[in-house]
Amino acid sequence: MNILVCIKQVPGTSKVEVDPVTGVLKRDGIDSKMNPYDLYALETALKIRESEGGTVKVLSMGPNQALSVIKEAYTMGADEGTLLSDRKFGGADVLATSYTIAQGVKKMGDFELIICGKQTTDGDTAQVGSEMAEWLKIPHVANVKNIVNVEDSTITVEMDMPESIETVKIAYPCLITVDKGIFEPRLPSYRKKLSTKDREIKILSLKDFDDKDEKNYGLNGSPTQVERIFPPEVNNDREMWTGSSSELSGKMGEKLKELKFI
Ligand SMILES: Cc1cc2nc3c(=O)[nH]c(=O)nc-3n(C[C@H](O)[C@H](O)[C@H](O)COP(=O)(O)OP(=O)(O)OC[C@H]3O[C@@H](n4cnc5c(N)ncnc54)[C@H](O)[C@@H]3O)c2cc1C
To answer: Which runs of E-coded beta strand occur in 118-185?
Structure first.
C-alpha cells in the first residue's frame, strides 16, 4: 500500500515571540520539532506498512529548516520525503496551506491512504487534513483513534466523536487524521540515522505544480486576515475577602455584576 504522511515542523517551545509589527511568529533561531500529532500519524503508517507492505512517503510544507523533520521521519522508518518550499507559499492560511499541500500530493504520485495528525501545536486549527481531502476530492475521516481493519480496497477505523465512537469503513484513496494514543510512536533509530544520512529529499516549488497561479498560494491565496496577534495579558490582581458565607456570596454576586459577567 502506498501511504503518505503529512508532517509539520512546529516550535519546540511555548515561549515563542510574536513580531509586533507583522503579527507573525518569530520562528528564526528557536528550537523546532515535529508536530507531536504527526508522530502518531507516522507510526500509524509504519504499522500498516509492516502488516500490508508498501511504502511510506512523508511530505512537509515549510522553509528549508523543515528538512530536519523529514530527516527525523527517515530515522523512524519513512522511505521517501518531499518538502514543499517556496517564498510564494509564505503567510498561507489554512485554505492556502491545504491547497498547496494538495497540489504537492498530486505531483508525488498515487496514494491509497493519506494520514495527517489531528491538529498542530502551533496553528492548531485541525482543518488542514479535511480541507486537503476536499481539494483532492477523496473521502476523509477525522479524529481517528483506532484502526480496526485494513483490507484490499477499504480501511475500517474508529472515529472519536464528542459523545460516542463511530466505526467507519472508507474506500481508498482516502485521508484520515489521527489522534494521539492510536499507537505509541517509536523512537528514532541511530542505525537508520546513519543509513539514511545521504537519502535524497525532493523539493517541490510553485514551478513544479500544475496550478502555477500565484494568486492561489501564500498570503495572496489566504482569505483570512489576521488583524492582530498578541500574547494574552497577565493579570495577577487579587483581593482577599473575609466574612460569613452569605456575606461572601453576596459580595461575589456584586463583583460579578460590576465586572459584567452577570
Ligand atoms: C492569515 C494567516 C496568516 C498566517 N501566516 C502565517 C505565517 O506567516 N507563517 C506561519 O508559519 N503560519 C502562518 N499562519 C498559520 C498557518 O496558516 C497554519 O499554521 C497552517 O495553515 C497550518 O494549519 P494548522 O497549523 O492549524 O494545521 P492543522 O490543521 O492543525 O494540522 C493538521 C495536520 O495537517 C498536517 N499539516 C498542517 N500543516 C502542515 C504543513 N505545513 N506541512 C505538512 N503537513 C501539515 C499535519 O499532518 C497536521 O497534523 C497563518 C495563518 C493565518 C490565518
So the answer is: 140-150, 154-160, 165-171, 174-178
